[in-house]
Amino acid sequence: MDAALALFILLTSFLTALAADPSHLVSKLPGQPQVNFNQYAGQVTVNPTTGKTLFYWFYEADHQNSSLQLPLAIWMNGGPGCSSVGAGALGELGPFRTNDAGSGLVLNPYAWNQVVNLIFLEAPHGVGFSYSNTTSDYNQYSDDIMASDVLVFILEWLKRFPEYSKSDFYLLGESYSGHYVPTLAAKILDYNKKKAGAFINFKGFALGNPWSDTYSDNKGDTDFFHSHSLVSDEIYNQVVANCDFAKDLSSDANPLCRFAVSAMVNSIQYVDTYNVYAPTCNQQDPNGTILSQTLRENTFMHTEMLAAAYDPCADTVSPYLNSKDVQTALHVEFMPGKWSFCSRAVNENYPIKEITNSMLPLYRSLLKEGLKIWIYSGDVDGVVSTIGTKAWIKKLNLTITQKWYPWKFQDQVGGWSEKYAGLTLATVRGAGHMVPFDQPEQALLLFQHFVDGSSLPGF
Questions:
Q1: Could you tell me if 107 and 96 are in contact, meaning their C-beta atoms sit under 8 angstroms apart?
Q2: From first to last of its 459 residues, what are the pLDDT tens digits of the chain?
Q3: Where does the UniProt annotation place the signal sequence (predicted)?
Q4: Using an 8 Å Cβ cutoff, are 185 and 368 in contact?
Q5: Of 99, 52, 133, whose CA–CA distance to 336 is shortest?
Q6: pTM for this structure?
Q7: Does a structural domain hold residue 88?
Q8: Strand 372-378 vs strand 423-428: parallel, antiparallel, or unpaired?
């Protein structure tokens, strides 16, 4: 590194530190390797009356790039009720992964903070290190409440980090963030139009395998299982004939539907439905996916179809985040219980009417706002399948501006893409529900093109 570059990095770090909230600076985590960026973490109160507080972990963009010149993004995992810190930050796209012993960290060479300044937010309250001091809050969940709380968080966060107040701002997420993110996007746009306070320079959002339209996603999953020979023709035909795909299939009033869905669940129970070609996680197979013990809680836990049978194993994140030294370093001032990947209580208290609500009306509104919208989809996910995603996008009746084509990654097919007026769809070949975990290099390339606003490379 030459002297001029070293001086530039030093000055950038110094100026950033002057503006950023020093009380949330993470000096160094236990077992952390050396990095070229600052990180901050802590709990931010979003409702002083009830004591509702959300936890975040923020990574500046790597100082090989000028962090203040790069966009700001916030990532949220789904559930409802799963942690963006445990899954997103330490399992998918953050700069660190936990080591095999769960006692320290290793670097992720495909971290998305190479492209943006990146916030991971645990929400709603009751998830991870986020909580409320008011018992009744734990019976009050909805997409709108979630969006309102996160909007308050964003505004409070920008007060603590004013140097990012004019940065291009993006929302990111996967799974049930297919509800969180569009709802929050509409809330931000409405806030900006009212000019009630600081302007949020909101530019768009990217979502991976997003739960968006219950009919399309339920039917798409069923078609996926059948087309991949995971269920028989007989079972498939029974489900299609007897189930209303716009509802929670596990509680369908038609007993013939419940019987057919139960038969489908039995047929797929030994397969990791989050990536149907990945080894399942069990004590006998050390190569099984480490995320299955948490992801069984993810997306649409009210539906039996998603509750495949797994053994918990190889969870190195929970021991790390439950370490008192780690919590102190992350400025966790209060924690009502043990940290966990997913909160069953949050999921079970999240209203089913919210989960089955279609996001298509919101998309029709958001598409008029000139936002950059990308939907990407791991093509071996059986939880929120590409088939279902293509189906609900088709319902939007958008004009195709670039027809379906294979995009290139290292001279191989990385996936397929199609561009529409206002929206880009990209599949990721060989990825399951959590694209940055299954195909990290392809995911990083895709994300770079999203931020740049350029098409994925063709052959």
A1: yes
A2: 444 434 434 444 444 445 678 999 999 899 999 999 999 999 999 999 999 999 999 999 986 666 778 999 999 999 899 999 999 999 999 999 999 889 999 999 999 999 999 999 999 999 999 999 999 999 999 999 999 999 999 999 999 999 999 999 999 999 999 999 999 999 999 999 997 777 999 999 999 999 999 999 999 999 999 999 999 999 999 999 999 999 888 777 799 999 999 999 999 988 989 999 988 764 444 444 444 433 343 333 333 333 333 334 458 899 999 999 999 999 999 988 899 989 989 988 999 999 999 999 999 999 999 999 999 999 999 999 999 999 999 999 999 999 999 999 999 999 999 999 999 999 999 999 999 999 999 999 999 999 999 999 999
A3: 1-19
A4: no
A5: 133
A6: 0.90
A7: yes
A8: parallel
Q: What is the DSSP letter of 401?
A: E
Pairing relationship of beta strands 202-208 and 169-174 according to DSSP bridges: parallel
Q: Does residue 103 form part of some domain?
A: yes
Q: Report helix, strand and coil shares of the chain as percent, to nearest 5.
A: 40, 20, 40
| C-alpha to C-alpha distance for 208 and 210, rounded to whole angstroms | 5
Shared-domain flag, residues 199 and 234 = no
In the numeric block, the tokens 């179809």 are attached to 305
User: Same domain, yes or no, for 206 and 221?
Assistant: no
Q: What is the DSSP string of 262-314?
A: HHHHHHHTTS-TTSTTSPP-BTTBTTS-TTHHHHTTSS-TTSGGG--------
Q: What is the CATH number of the domain that holds 183?
A: 3.40.50.1820
Asked if the structure places residue 351 within a domain, the reply is: no
Helix (H) or strand (E) run with residue 39 in it: strand 39-47
Q: Which residues, including other chains, have CB under 8 Å from residue 68's CB and lie 6 or more apart? A: 12, 15, 16, 163, 164, 167
| Residue the block writes with tokens 């997913």 | 342
Using CA atoms, how far apart are residues 122 and 292, in angstroms rounded to an integer?
19
Residues 228 and 129 in one domain: no
Active-site positions? 175, 381, 433
Alpha-carbon span 91 to 85, nearest angstrom: 8
Q: How far apart are CA 32 and CA 99, in angstroms?
A: 10
**Is the domain of 126 the same as that of 155?**
yes
Spatial neighbors of 262 by CB under 8 A, at least 6 apart, are: 304
Quote the domain boundaries for residue 364: 3-212+357-452
Say whether both 18 and 114 belong to one domain: yes
Q: Can you tell me the distance from the alpha carbon of 417 to that of 433, in angstroms, rounded to the nearest whole number?
A: 17
CA-to-CA dists, residue 276 to 310, 378, 379, 411, angstroms: 13, 11, 10, 25
